[in-house]
Amino acid sequence: MIEQIRPSQLAAWLRNASANGTTPVVLDVREAWELQTASVKPHGFTLLHIPMNAIPARASELNRDTPIACLCHHGGRSQQVANFLAQSGFTSLANVAGGINAWSGELDTSVPRY
Known about the structure:
Number of domains: 1
Largest sheet: 5 strands, parallel
Structural class: alpha/beta
C-alpha cells in the first residue's frame, strides 16, 4: 500500500525518509506546462520532473533505494505512478495527497493554483 501524505505532513515524512542519510526525491509527474504554471522549491529533498507518460521509459533514472514522494495536480496521477513504481520494485514510496493544489493551500500560498 502506498503511503498517503498531505503536503502539511511532508516535512515529517522527509525527516523520516532521510534518517538513513539519503536525500528523498519529490517526483513531479505533471506535464511541462503545469510545471511552468506552478512549481515547488526543493527544501530538504531533490525535486525531479518526469511526466507521467514518460515514467515507464525513464524509471531507470530513479534509485530504488531512495524514498520517493510522487506529486501531481490533485494526487490521482501521482498515485498511479507510485503504484507503477511499487510494481517495479520500489519500496519507499508516498503519494502527496491533494497534489500541488493542496501544497498551495497548506504549505506555500505563493504557489499558484490552476
